[in-house]
Amino acid sequence: MAKRPYQPKDYFFRKAKEEGLRARSAFKIDEIARRFTIFKKGQTVIDLGAAPGGFLQIILNEVGPTGHVVGVDLAAIKSLGRPNVKTAVMDVLADDFAKQLEALHPGPVDVVVSDLAPKTTGVKDVDEARSLRLAGIALDVARVRGVQGGHFIAKLFMGGDFEQFRTDLRALFSDVKVVRPEATRGASMEIYLVGLKKR
C-alpha cells in the first residue's frame, strides 16, 4: 500500500487553527498532560524549545493565573499577552545556558518540558545523538532545578543511546513512560519520555 503523503492541513492543523492555538503540536502536550495529570494550578513550568508557543498556551491554561511559565527558544516567541509568562531567545547549547535560565527565572521548578529538536542532517545516528544531547540538557535542568515530586517531559528520537537515557530517567523519577502522542505525524521518529514524581 502506498504511503500517504504528508498533508500540512491535516486534522490537528485545522483543529489548532479553530482553537486559536499557534501550532498543531499543542495537542501533543495536551494529551500527555491529561494522560498523566502533569500540571496543577500555581505551578512553575519551564518549556524548552517553546517557539512558536503552542505548548505555552496549553501550559498557561493548566497552571492558571497563579502559575509561572518560562519559555525559551532560538527563535523569538510572539507575546502571549499574559503577565505570568516570560519568554527569551536562548541557545541551550551555550556554555552559560544554565546561568541565563537562572537569571530569567531563579528558584525551583515543578515541571520541565522539552520540545527541543536538532536541525536534522538525514544521517540517523547523528540526528539521534543530537536529539539525545538536547534531551540531556533538559534533564540537567530538571535534576538541578526540579522539585521533589515534580515531573519531566522530553521529546527525542528513538535509537542510539535511548535506553541509557531512559535508565538515567528511571534513576531520577519514580515512574517513566514512553509516549507517542496521537498528533505526531506518521513518518516522524519522535517520541516523548515522561518522568513522573522526581525522587
Q: Which structural class matches the secondary elements?
A: alpha/beta
Q: In percent terms, what proportion of residues is strand?
A: 25-35%
- The total count of helices amounts to 6
What is the arithmetic mean of pLDDT?
90
Overall description:
- By secondary structure, this protein is of the alpha/beta class.
- The protein has six helices and seven strands.
- It has helices at residues 11-18, 26-36, 54-63, 97-104, 124-145, 162-172; strands at residues 44-48, 68-73, 85-89, 109-114, 146-157, 173-179, 190-198.
- The longest helix has 22 residues, at 124-145.
- 40% of the residues are buried.
List the keywords.
199 residues; alpha/beta; Rossmann fold; seven-stranded mixed sheet; 7 strands; 35% helix; globular
Task: List the SSEs and their pairings.
Elements lengths: L10 H8 L7 H11 L7 E5 L5 H10 L4 E6 L11 E5 L7 H8 L4 E6 L9 H22 E12 L4 H11 E7 L10 E9 L1
Parallel strand pairs: 1-2, 1-4, 2-3, 4-5
Antiparallel strand pairs: 5-7, 6-7
